[in-house]
């Protein structure tokens, strides 16, 4: 089948050991983008994706950020799905008891309550610096602006993350996606969206294509639906078992240029 578009996850999939794009990956994707569009799709905020777009010279393509919570075309939001504000206030109130780190994200805004090890780690991973503002101050600001979070990142001890997960599952059942990439991390987003729903939206509204026309690369829990739903779902070798089980193809590990290796074979580069 002649595929017509590529979607690729970033962290764990596209980046090397230094958390940057390798020369081989850049060269391969620059060749491929002459044949078909390449779109980045990530849990990251848009500003943590744009420098990668620039490296690949695909700034003209859309960005799917926050696991599908925010889709940008030509820099403008075409789809935005936030966490209900009442859920955000409920979590903030509950968290006063345990004081877990809650990073709050909306479009290119990223707020952290203090500059701690968690903020420093995310800053190192993404190359983006947060703004220091208490969760209470952020909520007051967003309430006045009639907006909420596209993503919440809870980071703390395993016990703290357990407590937050249990609270959200009890108080807001069937409302949230809870992605736990590691015991000390919990990504929180609106359950109405996923990477695959974002792909479906973009295909219908922007490209006039179907999921069968797509190649998608991924590695983590939030990639399962996407890998399963497209025409060719490719898992990097380091992917979670759940991703490996639904993939059509398994390529080399992300840090070993697995995406580039797969594309070279597919397009005979």
Helices, strands, pairings?
Blueprint: E1 5-8, H1 23-32, E2 38-41, H2 50-56, E3 63-65, E4 70-73, E5 76-80, H3 85-95, E6 101-106, E7 109-112, H4 117-126, E8 131-132, H5 135-145, E9 151-155, H6 158-171, E10 176-182, E11 185-190, H7 195-207, E12 214-218, H8 224-229, E13 232-236, H9 241-246, E14 249-251, H10 258-267
Parallel strand pairs: 1-2, 1-12, 2-3, 7-8, 12-13, 13-14
Antiparallel strand pairs: 3-4, 4-5, 6-7, 6-9, 9-11, 10-11
Give an overview in words.
The protein has ten helices and 14 strands. With 269 residues, it is of the alpha/beta class. The strands form two sheets. An eight-stranded mixed beta sheet has the order 5-4-3-2-1-12-13-14. Strands 8-7-6-9-11-10 form a six-stranded mixed beta sheet, with helices on one face. Helix 9 (241-246) links the parallel strand 13 and strand 14. Helix 1 (23-32) runs parallel beside helix 10 (258-267). The relative contact order is 0.17.
User: Structural class, from helix and strand content?
Assistant: alpha/beta
Alpha-carbon distance between the termini? 17 Å
How many beta-strand segments?
14
Look at the structure and give the mean pLDDT.
Answer: 95
Q: N-to-C SSE series?
A: EHEHEEEHEEHEHEHEEHEHEHEH
Uncertain regions spanning at least 5 consecutive residues: none
What's the alpha carbon Rg, rounded to whole Å? 18 Å
Strand content: 15-25%
What is the global morphology?
globular
The helix count comes to 10
Roughly how much helix do the residues carry, as a percent range?
25-40%
How would a crystallographer describe the biggest sheet? 8 strands, mixed
Strand order of the largest sheet: 5-4-3-2-1-12-13-14
